[in-house]
Structures are given as structure tokens and as C-alpha cells.
Amino acid sequence: MKIVDLAELACRNLREALLRNSLTTLGVAVGVASLVAMLSVGVGLQQFASQRLASSGLFNAIFVMSRAERGFESGRAGFAQSAEKARPLDGSARRELAQLANVTEVYPQIRFVTEVRYNAAPYPTSVAGVPASARTDDAFQGMKGTFFSGPTANEAILQIQFAKELSSHPDSLIGKWLVLRYAKRETLPPASEQNAGKKTATDRASESSGGFSVVPEQKRLRIVGIIDTEPEGGFGGFGRSRVFIPLALAQELSATQMSDLQQLVSGNAPSRTYSSLTVRVKDPTEVASTEAAIKKMGFATFSLLDTTKNLQLFFTVVDLLLGIFGSLALAVATLGIVNTLAMAILERRREIGVFKALGADDRDVKQIFFAEAGTMGLIGGAAGVLLGWLIGRALTFGTNLYLVRRQLPSVQISAVPLWLALGAIAFSVVVSLFAGIYPATRAARLNPVEALRYE
């Protein structure tokens, strides 16, 4: 029997018991709608998380650290010996990293604990240098005020919680001045050979370790902006900062950092090293290959790619659970299809007998009932996708209404991509065909003589 004839016959048979078949199809639609609505929430939340992480500028960033700093290679010889073998993260390493393929920029992570004075009152805090490329990061979108006017501008951006400590009206701080008091690192000049005999043991140790002195300094900075969240969110194992200055200015200040103190105590490396470097690539797809190349150079790395693997696993489990719960309603609708087609057999026994008397075999009878079940699944699946999309839109609207009342940004918590819509319809048809196996088999086994005698 041709597909066109089967479809026409199935539609005609479904119209004969319109109310019952419509209710059965509606049950399929409700089941598919619950499945689509739940999965759309899982997909929407996953897309929301991915978009927020991508807009933060972290997907194309690799944090590079020295293996000695992280103690990656401590073994039988102990940590001190492994630190000597580990490659230092210095200026030459930074230049070498910048020459890697697909790398757009390499800059150091400069963060130091210091004191800020505002209205003659001291406030202990931490300061971080921010590169010019961070202007497009999510943390600076919608900020109050403006970004730095230049790479070495004497300007600062405050985190909102720290701004509230300075003033009960944080917005009024923009345009005001504060004083940054910090400990500046100054490299000690080598002693002359004439004074070699006068050197103390401390002097010789200082020279052998590339000694430096710590000098108190201060810098006046104008507050130009206030942000809600910290750029990069403290990724890469760094503490959170509350005052941000241009990265070039932070390098000029030469403030003493934790790596300087470690260098002074261990007596390693005559030149200044970085505690970490941030490597940015052109595209997030290049992170894995670039990270592998950096590891071959002898450095430890961390990227958001390592974290997103666990995030993808989490969303996969969530989608699976949502799909299971959403399929329960579709399972109930499957029973409705079985019941509807089983009742149709009792009502159409004479019709089935006529078909067989005219030469139709068991296969033809099965095809008729399968076509009816598939049609209900197709129509119910399409209607269910539309209903599920509407439910998702309603959930998004209600969520955003709640967030707006609490002065929070709106979000898109549901999404129905094309693959979900087509997959739901296909799944509905397959389940409906599965539900039609028993009625179709039962109808095909009818004896045509007994079917024609049926009243």
C-alpha cells in the first residue's frame, strides 16, 4: 500500500471518532510539551552559563605558573631540588610565550596587598592591574563610570563592596581622589670590588640572590568607575581584589608581591620573576593546543577548559534527569494510544474483515494501524513542541519579572533549539508507533470470517 493512501486512510479513520482521537492526541501533546519544557530549561541554563563565561573573557585565557611555585615536581629529592630544576617565569619566558601560534597577548598577573587612604582614613585592601583588553570583559559592561582613559593613567576602578566601605553613597566616589600606599621594590646595585672586604654575610647573600630593598611609596589615583564583580573572578588561584588600576601603571609602580618575598627567602633567581602570566589566544578552540604547548615548555597551566569539562558533565546529568521526568507524561499518553486503537479494533472488526476478504494481508492491516498511531504521534508531537515553547517563554517571563522587582538583570532560562524540536517530534512518533504494536498485531490476527459475522 502506498504511503499517500495510508496517510489518507489514517486521517479518515481518525476523523470518524474525532473526540476520542483528539483527546488521545492531546495527551501526546501534553506529554511532549512537558518533555520539551523541562529540556528547554536545561538547555537555556546551559546556554546562559556559557554566554556569561564567554563574555567574561575567560574562555580564551590560559593562566601560566612556574612549576616551582606550585610544587608540581616535588619528588624524592624534595621541593627545594625540584624548584631549582623548574623553569623560572621571567621576561624571557614571557617573550617566548608571546611568540606561540594563535597567541594575541601575554601579560602578568599583578596583585598586591596594600593600604588605601580616603579622607585621611586607612583601608587595607588588595590591588590588581587590569590590561587594556579587559575593557570588553563582562565585568566592565554596565559599570558605573568609565574605563581607564589610558594605559598609565593615574586612575582606579573600585569593586562595589569596597566602595560602600569608603562611602555610604558609592556613586559619589566617582571623580574623587584616593591615595595608594604601597611597598616598592628597588633592586640593590652590586657592591664595588674595592669594598669587597667590608661586605657582611647579609650583603653577600643579598647580592647572590639578586637582592632588593623595600621602599614605602604612595600614589594619588582618581576614581573613575565602580564595578559589581571582579574581572576574571579570581581564576588561576589568585585572591580577590577590590581596587583595579591600569596594568602598565601597576608595572611602573613595581610594588612588592608575594613572589618577591618567596624569592628573597629561597635565594633563587637573580632577576625578577612573575607569579603568573595570562596568555590569551585568538579563539577558544585554540586553548587546548596552546595549553599543551605551554606545558611542554615546562610551565604549569590552568584554563577554564579544565573547569567546563565538569560543567558539561553536570548539565548532561541535569538534562538526563529532566528528560526522564518529562517522559513520564509521554508514557501515560502512550497508554492512551494503546487504549484508543484497541477500542478501534472492536468498532472496526467488520471493516477489517472486508479488507481481508478483498485480499489485504496481515501486513496491510498492521500498516493501517501503525499509520494511525504515527499520525497521532506526529500531530501531538508538533503541538507539544509549540506548547512546550510557550511554557518555556512563560517561565522566562515570570523569572524576569521576579528579577526586575529585585533590581537584577533579566535572563533567558529556556531555549528550544531546532534539534530539540525535531528530536521531540521524532521521539513522539517513535513512541506512538511502539504503542501501536499491540493493537496492530491484534487487528492483523483477526479471522476474516469471524470479523464479517461481528455485529
Would you kindly provide a written description of the structure presented here, covering whatever features stand out?
The protein has 455 residues and is α+β, with helices and mostly antiparallel strands. It has two domains: 3-54 and 311-453, no CATH class; 61-302, no CATH class. The radius of gyration is 35 Å and the shape is elongated. It is 53% helix and 17% strand. Strands 3-4-9-6-8-7 form a six-stranded mixed barrel. Helix 2 (18-55) packs antiparallel against helix 11 (304-347), helix 11 (304-347) runs parallel beside helix 14 (418-435) and helix 11 (304-347) packs parallel to helix 15 (437-444). It contains 16 helices and eleven strands.
Low-confidence segments, given as residue ranges, are 71-84, 199-210, 233-239
**Radius of gyration, Cα only, in angstroms?**
35 Å
- Label the structural class: alpha+beta
Along the chain, the helix and strand elements come as HHEHHHEEEEEHEHEEHHEHEHHHHHH
How many DSSP helices?
A: 16
Write down the overall mean pLDDT.
77
Helix content: 40-55%
Please give the domain count: 2
Question: What is the count of β-strands?
Answer: 11
First-residue to last-residue Cα separation: 28 Å
Q: What is the 3D shape?
A: elongated
Strand order of the largest sheet: 3-4-9-6-8-7
The biggest beta sheet reads:
6 strands, mixed, barrel
